[in-house]
Write a structure and sequence with these properties.
Number of domains: 3
Distance between the termini: 26 Å
Radius of gyration: 22 Å
Strand content: 15-25%
Helix content: 40-55%
Low-confidence stretches: 1-33
Largest sheet: 6 strands, mixed
Number of strands: 8
Shape: globular
Structural class: alpha/beta
Length: about 300
Amino acid sequence: MQIERLGNSHQAFTATMVYGRIPQAMEDKESDLNMDKVTIITEMRRVAAEIGTKVLPMSEFQSRTGLSGWQIYKHFASWNEAVEAADLTPTHTGRIDDAELFREMKDVFMELGGVCTWRKFNHLCKYSLNVYRRHFGKWKTTLLAFKAWIIESGEDFPFLDQLPSEVSLRKAEERIVIEKEELKAASWSPLGTMTYGAFLNFRGLQHAPVNEQGVVFLFGMVCYELGFVVEAVRTGYPDCEAKRRVKGKPNTWERVRIEFEYFSSHFRNHGHDPNGCDVIVCWQNDWPECPLEVIELKTAIQTLPD
């Protein structure tokens, strides 16, 4: 990878492009960098044996080892390829049928003896919680969809009363809105010191970006998981030269030119020529009629493990 010049909005890219994330501790840097294919396979087998499963979600493996997606994909084209190399059971690579997800959900609840929290569910389910999020949204709406499936399918489920009802969920959401309106937090006149974005707590990034530099930094943390590898970052237009994995062809990559912006509309405000760019990466997409493809990191990271 070539970096023509470090500085301004791109200085943040250096460390994150090396590790793919912020290391859990500085002393882990050397071991993380030297993690080879055999060691990853050994660790996968160890974690799978530790939790007693042949189906090991990537998010579970990462949370127990601290390894980044970059370290895994450096040696394997996909997570399933790594799983097969470790003699474990690959997960379904296509869209999983809703009924299959609900059957697995039922099995987990039956094994636990009741409905559990999403954290415990994510540890026991053979499918990642992100799969359920992509299908059904938030945990409570997932539980509502599961309840509807139980009723419609006639499946025997003795813990039906532990599942939320649509009315109770709606009332809870209405109560949250009312409480937010009633609760007016104190605010103070600014001192002119450093300011921060909303609490994000995503991996090593505690606050949401408040400028373009934060967008560059966050993209560096997650770019490989989003299907990108970076070739060069510069201060001229466009900001970044990268390659993107082609859908359906895991070993095929195509060139893309990326411009970083905090709001997507800043691309227009800065007077950039759309013909010189392929993708806008931003924190918030506020330009519905944008002629270019936009990746809104605020939304994209919701499908990634914390």
